[in-house]
TrEMBL record:
Keywords per UniProt: Membrane, Transmembrane, Transmembrane helix
Species of provenance: Actinomycetospora aurantiaca
InterPro entries assigned to the protein according to its UniProt record, in alphabetical order: EamA_dom, EmrE-like
Top-level division of the source organism's lineage: Bacteria
UniProt record similarity statement: Belongs to the EamA transporter family.
Protein name (database record): DMT family transporter
Membrane-crossing residue ranges in chain numbering: 24-44, 50-68, 84-104, 110-132, 139-157, 169-188, 200-219, 231-249, 261-280, 286-303
UniProt keyword Mitochondrion, yes or no: no
Record-annotated EamA domain positions: 24-154, 169-302
Amino acid sequence: MTLSASPAASGTAATTRRPLDPRLLAVAGSLCIALSPILIALSGTSPGTATVFRCLLALPVLVPMALLERRRTRAAVDAPRGRPWLVVVGGLLLGLDMTLWTGAIHAVGAGVSTVLVNVQVVILPLLAFLVLGERVRPSFLLAVPVMLGGVALAGGLADGGGDAADPVLGTVLALLAAVAYAGYLLLLRVGSAPGEKSGPVTLATAAAAVSSFVLGSLWEGVDLTPGWTAIGWLAVLALIGQCMGWVLIAGGMARLPSSTGASILLLQPVGAVVLGMLVLGQFPTAWQLAGCVVVIGAVAFAARRRVEPSPEDAVAS
């Protein structure tokens, strides 16, 4: 007598949901983070103050999410475990990145600072090649010059940089932030276990609060009573830019090659331009609009096909 699969089993298999495309997660996270320079400017706080409050106000939301995720992953006995110490180191770098970038926003402007910090698009794949031995696809190498040119246009560099308060200092701060940013993204990917999103972001955010407080205390100070208006803007920044943005990016980057993920993150300056129009009434020039089009086209070219990291890459140390 031949046994056939039960209708329940067949229905279960048929209704199994496919995971979301990691590129969509990374795009959504990038657009959330694109709000960051606008909210930071509206808060009117120092670099250390903005970053410390951004992290602390995000933790009450992130911690329950991390606990729920941990309860779910504990059920899988054979599930691979992450390396939390790598996530902590990455979080320390994240605190440096956000504090330095906030300083760059004040010194050189939101658009140009966002352009400069996105040189991580080159630094991240280079680090992945050196640390993980991950190969860089030829299509990415072809798209990099186009992407960087488009980001430069979108940030307003073609217009001379505007009335920046201190363009030299702002450039240095943004470039240092880019190095820290790339290090954070790589360590978050290497240190997180498969399926983890909220837990690593929560741990990294707590570590970022520590490093940003130390750096901020030494540089322009940390104001623990910035006022309710500033706290309100920073709370919105924590919810959208920190909780939603980084969790979405963590979920997407874990299943994407570093070059593809870094390319998608270049949508941040484009999103900043669009949101600046909608929120602050800052209408871009024709050069900036052209840059937006170039960036979107280059990102679509570099990320047109998803390639999962190989098992060897995923476990390399």
